[in-house]
Amino acid sequence: MxxxxxxxxxxxxxxxxxxxxxxPPASTGGSQPRWRDIADNAYAAAYRNSFDYADAVAQLxxxxxxTTFKARLVADGLKPxxxxxxxxxxxxxxxxxxxxxxxxxxxxxxxxLNVPDASYEANKGxxxxxxxxxxxxxxxxxxxHLEKEVVLDSSYHVLWRYGISGVxxxxxxxxxxxxxxxxxxxxxxxxxxxxxxxxxxxLVSVFGEHEATAGNARPLPGELEMSPGEYQLEFVMTxxxxxxxxxxxGWWMPALVSPPGQMVSFTVVPEPTSSFxxxxxxxxxxxxxxxxx
Length: 293
Prior knowledge:
single chain; alpha+beta; 32% strand; globular
């Protein structure tokens, strides 16, 4: 078993990776941007007028093959103290579309929009059907920076927050919800850039709601397993709006996406046995030696 573990570690070091630079979407589909942070502090008018996701620098570095999707996300130039959903979208004819839908959700454009598994199964041939999965989330620091190790092992419905009151999207996490990201929102270091008022500090926690919609119940966070096969998906960072309805509250706007024509392409393989790990590790070590010349 020790040898198998050593071979697995070596294989991970040699695993091919792809780096994707994220860009603003060509269209936001009518969604509105959010101009409040996770503590509901409003950004300054000058900041709202000048901010542009085209100025952000964000890269997703992901493994091309594995037992699930794994990646590292690094981004600068995002909104400060802000929550983003990490999401995959698959169009009707994308490889992996159906497998993604069965661990996430279905979208019927031109129809009833969000639909359960049964509706998808009864209308599979409709080209308006696609799938999506919110599988992780992240919160930026005071300068709009984030770094995140991503592992696809969860299915979420939406994000919530607690630590504040009197604003939309607040509740305590339940036993089946995801991990909490605890952030001390102290706007002092961003005052004058993103804020024109020194709001009182608040410790705000953001967490994901387990996807358990009737007809679409998914495995608990941390327990989801991807079905083996090829996937070609659009990666999306979506602004979390916390169900707000005010002028500055936004409406789940896509912020950054994988570039058009550059899908996130990877292959999911079954969990290997110990003997397979040894053979895989030896083969990849041989590849590394050959490349080194």
